Amino acid sequence: MRALNRLLLVSWMVACPLTALAADDDAPSPEPDVTIGNDGDNLIQEYKANGFVYAVKITPKHGKPYYLVRADGTSGQFIRSDQPDMLIPQWVLFSW
Predict the structure, then answer these.
(1) Average model confidence (pLDDT) across the chain
(2) CB 61 within 8 Å of CB 41
(3) How high is the pLDDT of residue 8?
(4) Which of 19, 14, 16, 46 is nearest to 33 (CA)?
(5) Residue 12 CA: distances (Å) to CA of 7, 25, 91
(6) What pLDDT is recorded for position 11?
(7) Which helix (H) or strand (E) holds 52?
(8) 72/38: higher pLDDT
(9) 50 burial class (0-12, 13-18, 19+ CB within 10 angstroms)?
(10) DSSP assigned state of 28
């Protein structure tokens, strides 16, 4: 009986740190995922958190960089952060 108690205690002591490490892997990362791409002469950086694009930074070849952020947080409409009244149109021209 005493050997069984020691075995259970040792296995419990080994399993506790492993479960703590597994719980940390499932937590969302505090840092955003940044996807960098080019669109002509513009450098585009998409900022994502949990697979959701919440901001886009556009750096033109000539000029100041600017950010596009979600208009209301959920829709696909983006607005410029330095000009909040200007909506960026997103029309569907073709779909199949």
Answers:
(1) 75
(2) yes
(3) 62
(4) 46
(5) 9, 21, 58
(6) 67
(7) strand 52-59
(8) 38
(9) exposed
(10) P
